[in-house]
Amino acid sequence: MKKILVCCNLSVTSSLLVEKIRSIIKERGLDIEIDSAPVKSAIDHLDGADVVMLGPMVGYAKAGFEEGGARKVVVISSEDYQSQYAARILDQALEALAG
């Protein structure tokens, strides 16, 4: 099973997004676990994450996550994040997992 971690400032917006993505994961029959975390504590969850997806407001932290050992780090576009376009965000995560 692959794991995706979605991070934003306080994990409020990302937790709503994660619920939408979970529905799509289930619809597609994928073996993926997804969780959200605030950016300040997300570093504690890197061991199990195959992909870390950062909300655009915390995209500045990408290099820090990469230096901290994150396997793959993706910054979600402002447009996708604000519109909560879960399918496109999941597809972005799947591309990162495949690459």
Task: Give structural notes.
The chain has 99 residues and is an alpha/beta fold. It has one domain: 3-Layer(aba) Sandwich (Rossmann fold). The protein has five helices and four strands; from the N terminus they run βαβαβαβαα. The chain has a four-stranded parallel beta sheet. α1 (12-28) packs across α5. The longest helix is centred in the N-terminal third of the chain and has 17 residues, at 12-28. It is globular and about 35 Å long. The two termini are 16 Å apart.
The helix-strand sequence is: EHEHEHEHH
Class by alpha and beta content: alpha/beta
Strand order of the largest sheet: 2-1-3-4
Number of helices: 5
State the domain count. Answer: 1
CATH H level, superfamily name: Response regulator
Defining key terms:
globular, alpha/beta, 5 helices, Rossmann fold, four-stranded parallel beta sheet, 99 residues, 46% helix, 4 strands
How are the SSEs placed, and which strands pair?
Elements: E1 2-8, H1 12-28, E2 32-38, H2 39-42, E3 51-54, H3 62-67, E4 73-75, H4 78-83, H5 86-98
Parallel strand pairs: 1-2, 1-3, 3-4
Helix pairs in contact: 1-5
Write a compact overview of the structure shown.
With 99 residues, the chain is of the alpha/beta class. It is built from five helices and four strands; from the N terminus they run βαβαβαβαα. The protein is globular and about 35 Å long.
